[in-house]
Amino acid sequence: MAGKTLYDKVWDAHVVREEDDGTALLYIDRHFIHEVTSAQAFEGLKLAGRQPWRTQAILGVPDHNVPTTDRSGGIVDPVSRLQVDTLDKNCAEHGIVEFKMNDPRQGIVHVVGPEQGATLPGMTVVCGDSHTSTHGAFGALAFGIGTSEVEHVLATQCLVQKKSKNMRVTVKGVAGAGIEAKDIVLAIIGEIGTAGGTGYTIEFAGEAIRNLSMEGRMTVCNMAIEAGARAGMIGVDDTTIDYVMGRPFAPAPTDRNAARDAWLLLHSDADAHFDKEVVLDAAAIRPQVTWGTSPEMVAVINDVVPNPACESDPVKAAGMEKALAYMDIPAETPVSDICIDKVFIGSCTNSRIEDLRAAAAVIKGRQVADTIKLAMVVPGSGLVKRQAEQEGLDKIFRAAGFEWREPGCSMCLAMNADRLEPGERCASTSNRNFEGRQGQGGRTHLVSPAMAAAAALAGHFVDAREY
Amino acid sequence: MQKFTVVDGLVMPMDRPNVDTDAIVPKQYLKSIKRSGFGPILFDDWRYLDPGEADMVTAHRRPNPEFILNFPRYAGAEILIARENFGCGSSREHAVWALDDYGFRAVIAPSFGDIFYNNSFKNGFLPIRLPAEDVDVFFRECEPQEGYRLVVDLAEQTVTTPRGQAMRFEIDPFRKHCLLNGLDDIELTLQHADTIREYEGRRRKQAPWLFRG
Question: Which of A425, A457, B130, B190 would be B134's cystine partner, CB 3.0–4.6 Å?
Answer without folding.
Answer: B130
